Amino acid sequence: MKKECVAMLLAGGQGSRLKALTRHVAKPAVPFGGKYRIIDFPLSNCVNSGIDTVGVLTQYRPLELNSYIGNGQPWDLDRSDGGVHILPPYLGENEEGSWYKGTANAICQNINFIDQYDPEYVLILSGDHIYKMDYAKMLEHHKAAKAACTISVLEVTMEEASRFGIMNVNENDQIYEFEEKPKKPKSNLASMGIYIFTWSKLRKYLLEDDADPNSSNDFGKNIIPAMLAKGEVLTAYRFKGYWRDVGTIDSLWDANMDMLSQDAGISLTDEDDWTIYARTPTKPPHFVGESAKVTHSLLTGGCQVEGEVEHSVLFHSVTVEPGATVRYSILMPGAVVKAGSHVDYAIVAEDAVIESGATVGAAPAEKKEEGWDIAVVAQGVKVGKNATVSPAAMVTKNVKEGAKV
Amino acid sequence: MNNLHGLIFAYRSNKDLRELTQHRNTCSIPFGGRYRLVDFTLSSMVNAGVTDVGMIVHSSYQSLLDHVGSGKDWDLSRKHGGLRILPPFGYADAPTGDYYGRMDSLAGVRSYLEDIKQDYVILSGGDVAANLPVQDIYNQHLATKADITAVVTCQSIGEPRSCTYMSTNPDGRVTDVFVHPKSPMGCEAVEVYILSKPLLLSLVDHCAAHNIHSFSNGVILAMKDRLHIHTYQFDGYVGRFHTLGAYFEHSMDLLDPAVRASLFDPRFPIKTKDQSNPSTYYGPEAHASNSLIADGCRVEGEVDHCILFRGVHVEKGARLSHCILMQGTTVGAGATLQYAITDKNVLINPGRMLMGHESYPIAIAKYSKV
User: Which of A310, A402, B170, B262 has the smallest number of CB atoms closer than 10 Å to its CB?
Assistant: First the structure.
């Protein structure tokens, strides 16, 4: 059946800058904010914006992401018409086939999927940002501007601007130039990686781009410049609100800590009628024991806390034993912090075990020293008794008793 | 396992539960921070591979219907079978008026019983908190070749005046039955039974013809010598809810790790209606100990020996001990509560003080403002 707008979510990236956290899962499947995974944000935004047809393009380590999305029921995307579809790269008859070469190529390989719904517009999203956004408003803007493409932008400081893709616009917010990480930025409008295209236009540019063997098949590098060159109307949609790229360990840690704050600009409670949905296992309520001390933290179902937890985000089924302390840290589902161990400024991934007396990470000194950073313990890793994991360490193998890494 | 059909008697509203059953029947009483009582029975059945469950309802069942919906959260929303709600007046000539007992209610849904595809049926009240090993009970039923298997617990849990007790020979065969005695005698029936479909149908017809309403009196007691009734002794935790005091006591049982280990065995998870709540936030001045706290709460005050359901707010300076706060309760700054049960969406204004006692917890009805 015809749909006005179909969303395509690029979820194939490895997220290599998240290092130890994406060894087993693709970046969009990385846990976030106590209850969620990163991909819950764009998926929930779609549903809350009235978009009921979403293609999720997967490639790197898709197993966990595929089973997480399943039939889309937690997001109300189990529809008989539309709904959520996982779109892996594929091989056609007499074709060599390939992985998705670039963001534009991923969409190009799925033209048939989009054509099924004969949409007027296509919304392109990525799976590595934390934000709440009404795409319907952006679509209104796109229609009003009679644009071929609308790019959502965020006003950043001029200093930050050289880290982003920057849109240079005229007085009507019409884009005349796109610069990737400019040394001397002319504007402070950073691309958020969210595009709305008029499908008939995009379809044409995708096919032309695909025919060019020298293209890297990327939206930012190829499609947008090609559209600008041909004089298409490209417009910037100014988004105001909380938006974070969580592509690095630091930014992931920061954004998690934002969830503890009252005035970070985003709230996960549904007071704003913009619920972020997630697939979560049914766990009993969490239990705080006799000796527990929990302050300024998030706790989730199935947790057992007997120790001290401060300024931290605990996902479901985390155990913190008596005498253990957890500060400024993120403990992902099933992590265990045994008696008398200390976790400071660290990310402990799923099912990792910190044995008793071990120390993971440390608080930064007054002035952050060279080499100080968040410590990361990867999924399933065991940190032995009385072992030490230094700040900035990235532990992907078991740490022996008493050892220091 | 597909040869067992579940039947849940969800028509009772126990008046001794006071405020808790004003708006709902006993099966849909909130329990354990995020569950309804019926979740335990439904999950026990589903975890044993039961795919078809009929739920007999009569009155005040709107809250129960809201909760179970299509049965999707228990994987019971199926093309064939799955969860079926059986309201009264299923056919034109159905008897009108209340159900006086289980046999009455079964007679009311007789046509449904005839269509059951499985050879065996498990009957349950749907109002006990227990993670029952249904597969094991069924296996024992087949092994003993009993006519009826009755699940019993040898810890005395319920109100004797509302319970059935059984004594057995050394093999476990029932030799005597005591219905609603003054004090406990033998092991207490959990009121979960397995029997074959043909036997069930013949019992329904027999009881209808003899104006017998009650399963305990009319079948278990009256036919204990004629039928082979065998007990299955369940040693895990069982909570029963005949009075508000019992509700309070069994809720507080959950603060014991051994009880939680029995009820919330991760191999046999208790499933419930999925709701999207974020994690619970603890404020900088929060102090919580010995408490079971569901997702979506904000804890900024002091909480000790409490059970908090989803979306409860405890503001700064509020002090709670031995309380059960149901979904959406807000306790204002500086309020003090002891031995209190607040039903859904209760508002306790700042500075209020409410004290019940272990022997008589106070209960505050749904949507009240204090």
Answer: B170
**Secondary structure (3-state) at A7:** strand
**Cα–Cα dist B236/A196, whole Å:** 57
Write down the pLDDT at residue A267.
Answer: 87
Closest CA to B219 of B164, B172, B181: B164
**Could you list the mean pLDDT of each consecutive 10-residue stretch along chain B, which spans 370 residues?**
88 76 83 94 94 88 88 90 83 62 87 93 92 95 94 86 90 91 90 95 91 88 92 93 90 94 93 90 95 96 96 95 94 94 91 88 86
CB A44 within 8 A of CB A277: yes
- Rounded to 5 degrees, φ, ψ at A382 are -110, 125
* Residues of B whose CB is below 8 A from A315: 279
For the record, the structure tokens of A290 come out as 């006799």
Q: Is B283–A295 a contact, with Cβ atoms under 8 angstroms apart?
A: yes
| pLDDT (0 to 100) of residue A88 | 85
pLDDT tens-digit profile of A235-259? 999 999 999 999 889 999 999 999 9
Determine the Cα–Cα distance for residues A285 and B307; give it in Å rounded to an integer.
9
Task: Count CB atoms within 10 A of the CB of residue A378.
Answer: 20
- What is the C-alpha separation between B8 and B207, in angstroms, rounded? 19
CB B322 within 8 A of CB B254: no
Token pair listed for B46: 């589903």
DSSP letter, residue A27: G
Cβ-contact B322, B309 below 8 angstroms: no
**Do A261 and A278 form a contact (C-beta atoms < 8 A)?**
no
CB of B332 within 8 A of CB of B350? yes
Give the pLDDT score at B140. Answer: 95
Residue with tokens 């046509």, as numbered in its chain: B111
Q: How far apart, in whole angstroms, are the C-alpha atoms of residue B348 and residue B234? A: 41
Number of alpha carbons in the 13 Å side-chain half-sphere of residue B226: 8
Single-letter residue type at B230: H
Chain centroid to CA B37: how far? 4
β-pairing, B174-179 vs B164-168, is antiparallel
Residue from B31, B251, B265, B282 to probe the interface with A (highest A Cβ count within 10 Å):
B282
Residue type, A126: S
Say if the Cβ atoms of B293 and A288 lie within 8 Å: yes
Of the candidates A73, A260, A300, the beta carbon closest to that of B295 is on A300
Contact A291 B289 (CB under 8 A): yes
Q: Are strands A175-180 and A165-169 parallel, antiparallel or unpaired?
A: antiparallel
* ipTM of the complex, rounded to two decimals: 0.88
Instruction: Using 70 as the pLDDT threshold, list the residues of chain A that sit under it.
Output: 92-97, 270, 368
Best residue of A261, A274, A294, A304 to probe chain B, by most B CBs closer than 10 Å: A294
Distance CA B122, CA B142 (A): 13
Phi and psi angles of residue A258, each rounded to the nearest 5 degrees, phi first: -60, -30
